[in-house]
Amino acid sequence: MTLALGQRVARLAGLGLGLGLAASAWAAQRFPPPQFETGHTLPATTTPPPDVFWHDALDMTVLAAALGLAAWLVLRRRSRKAVLGLVVFSLVYFGFWRQGCVCPIGAIQNVTLALSDPGYALPLVVGAFFLLPLLATILFGRVFCAGVCPLGAIQDLVVLKPVTVPRWLDDALSMGAYLYLGGAVLLAATGSAWIICQFDPFVGLFRMSGTAVMLGLGALFLLAGVFLARPYCRWLCPYGVLMSWIAPGALWQAKLDPVGCTRCELCRDGCPVNAIEAPDTAAVAATDRRQDRRRMATLLLIAPLLVALGLGMGAWLAPTMARADERVRLSDRLVAEDMQWVQGRTDATQAFRSRGESRVVLEAEVRAVKASFAWGTPIFGGFIGLVLAGKLIQHARRPRRELYSIEQARCVACARCFALCPHHRQGEAMPVALTHEEVPI
Amino acid sequence: MAEDAGPASDRRGFFHGAIRGLALLAGGGVLGLLAGRTQARQNVWQIDPDKCMMCGRCAVECVIEPSAVKCVHSHAICGYCELCTGFFEPDAPTLDEGAENQLCPTGAIKRSFIEPPYYEYSVEADLCIGCGKCVAGCAAFGNGSMYLQIRHDRCVNCNDCAIARVCPTGAIRRVPADEPYLLKKVNGP
């Protein structure tokens, strides 16, 4: 017995200690499987299956039902209380029970990867989570934000003392969402990182776990959200950008009831997201009009410059952005170690070297990644330039409005304005046929 | 004002229709492109034991606690050694189950005598935290029958696996949910 043990230890020593040997040794077992004389049976390895199948079906059903219900509550019932009920349900179901994953915001990355990488097959449930809320937006406006999105829900519940952010500041901050969208698409398309998931400020709260930084960030967003309503939705949410593009074309839109409007401004003051615009019918002086035209002409000239600037910035930043990819970082580190610019090895380079992986293969991969960043980052920059130009042009416009109207791109359909209207009677639907143009003030 | 309303509303209607049309067109385009790339089956995350280097990040980076990663033991590959380098500390004073001799920080591995000279080692999943210390010991000197796997009774299947994000060897990848484990086979990785 002792002798056998001694022999084994000797064999162990002979085998060497390297991890590199370990990899090849798996194929040839060092110790033969035992020949039991007592007829001992080997225990099986337990492999509990994932329960994703019934979850998928349930999640898609609940999502579709919640979207339909939100649309009905906002557009027909016009009831803030009922929407609030749905908000609580969605927070509990999609947030705390399903732990905020998968969500349409993150699904942007899956869809991008599926479009850019033929090797990645998009799971049906993720595709449905991406498309169903967009479909609902084409039909009913941003009802997804109102009562289905768990991130919106948790922020909506803490809106207690909202302050009105000046329109220009609101728009300036909302560039954050475009940067986030562009960055997320670029990094997902290159298969480098999933920043929407990585920096989701609320998923840690839903899961009751996470790093101190991310939990703190979530708490900070909620704290800020008491005064600045839905900060993530307005200034960061990449999915909100997609919805703001298509919401103005919604087939059925949330509208303020123009019958009996006394211009009390309660709805406008009470809108936490700056989405209600006051009537503006004042005649514009000829000099102002000329100034407006000149400003617009200047902006239209500047627009291509902004896009060009964005393209240039993108080209300049491409090598830096490429470092978001771990293969690029690994390759850079290997070179730095070879050149002895850095001391010691990281786990990644240690493993790469000890497994004897091919540098040629890695370099080929890195070249491909860098190539995709080389054309992807300028597109990202150009996109940001274009959005910036568009926002400036939008600001220079002076649209005439005869009534208080809801700006569909900004409106998150929370239904607060309905409840604030002195003419509003709970649960009473606005006559569908009635439009603003048909009602005289 | 009334004469303004007509053309203005027409114009607005046209723009709204255009947005709707474009959105539907874009949506249809994306749908068409995705149609061929969509699969009904879900993917789940799993560790490729060939690539795993037992760095210990699995134990701390998972969003659930304790980690969804646990050690599994393929007994068919195990040598049933009396001196198991996955079980004992390298400088264990004595070869018995005393806590000071054990590599596992939570005592999750049970060692039981079968017949001379064979001992069986089994992992108690409830105690295992997925630190991979036993896996490193087993891989360095043994048959490599112990290895880390993501246990799907615990994994919440994050869209972006928090461990995969920091795995230094890229050992965690998506696998079809109907074959959710990458188990080692006898006489092969």
Structure description:
- The complex is a heterodimer of chains A (441) and B (189).
- The N and C termini of chain A lie far apart (101 Å).
- Chain A has a two-stranded antiparallel ribbon with strand order 2-3.
- With 441 residues, chain A is an all-alpha fold.
- In chain B, 28% of the residues lie in helices and 19% in strands.
- Chain B is α+β, with helices and mostly antiparallel strands and 189 residues long.
- In chain B, the strands form three sheets. Chain B has a two-stranded antiparallel sheet. A two-stranded antiparallel sheet of chain B has the order 3-6. A two-stranded antiparallel sheet of chain B has the order 4-5.
- Chains A and B meet through helix 1, helix 2, helix 3, helix 5 and strand 1 of A and helix 1, strand 1, strand 5 and helix 3 of B.
- Strand 1 of chain A pairs parallel with strand 1 of chain B, so a sheet runs across the interface.
Task: Summarize this entry quickly.
The complex is a heterodimer of chains A (441) and B (189). Chain A has helices at 2-15, 19-25, 52-77, 80-97, 104-116, 124-140, 143-147, 150-156, 167-173, 175-189, 195-198, 203-207, 212-227, 231-235, 238-246, 266-270, 286-322, 326-338, 347-354, 359-396, 416-420, and strands at 122-123, 276-277, 405-406. Chain A is mainly α and 441 residues long.
Task: Order the strands across the largest sheet of chain A as they lie in space.
Answer: 2-3
**Tell me about the biggest sheet of chain B?**
2 strands, antiparallel
Average pLDDT score of chain B: 86
Stretches of chain A where pLDDT is under 50 for at least 5 consecutive residues are 1-27, 431-441
How large is the count of helical segments of chain B? 4
